[in-house]
């Protein structure tokens, strides 16, 4: 059973009683009469052939309170798109698959690229952004959840608990972040969150002093969780990064756009495991190495908008402070693991911290070398201003793809 402690300045909704999922879903069915709900699933085609996504689809068949499921499909040719239509055809809810590599969506993307209004990088951020646009265009929901497609420990309680805070009409939350303990197979996982993000936030506090933004970010128990939910109006004005800074960028946007009492985090799973990224010690353009650079840059960019200035000496101080804090955390997590009968490889943890420390410096150097870098995808409000019919055309493109290839 979780504790009921409220840490930081963001409301934490705990799992205190292990309430039956059937009770939660019964309430969600009632909520759906006032606040229709939808789910966004950003997916790679390869995930359709794995073990996680088939299980996710099976569980979602019982989520009858959802009005719509929007699936973003990346890295798929025509034959694979047809396969995806059949694969997701098991879902009883109204659902659509966005074929991101299809000619119709590619043509729309090219138009937006010409106006510098489209995502510049392939990846999850781009996929999520187009799914958000389609969700706005379909206008079938008021509350929206989003989660990854590689969760191997998935059951539908995760979704029910995730969407409940923004679906309950008596709550005033605009955004909810999921959290969980990254423990599976007798090990503590979640290295980037444990050994990079939290120690880096604490180091930034040491260097710059207490800041409300840093306190806000440090209030989230699992800031890199890919599971969150929101009211539909959040979609219009959010600007998200297209790189690995996506989750940090989303939290930063919520901090910019909403008061803290409109935001919360919720415990969504006792056990959570998904696909693990390689550390990529020899390649800073892949795996956890690139992720750590992108996350560091995302935090530095945000602090710059708060008037903080950086130079090489600043980054050296941040790195030195981070390194000491992170090493102390390794001992903390090791002791926690031992007490709970779990394993934790101290040598592997220290290798990760050494890599992250190097990449904090690399992220800082990249920030100084390219101060005009703008990895953020434009908000849909801006895109609609430039192309007033874009949502209608996006909707029609997805519908035409579905109609053409479902009948073949």
From TrEMBL:
InterPro entries, alphabetized: Nucleotide-diphossugar_trans (IPR029044)
SUPFAM superfamilies reported in the protein's UniProt record: Nucleotide-diphospho-sugar transferases
Name listed for the protein in its UniProt record: Glycosyl transferase
Organism: Oleispira antarctica RB-8
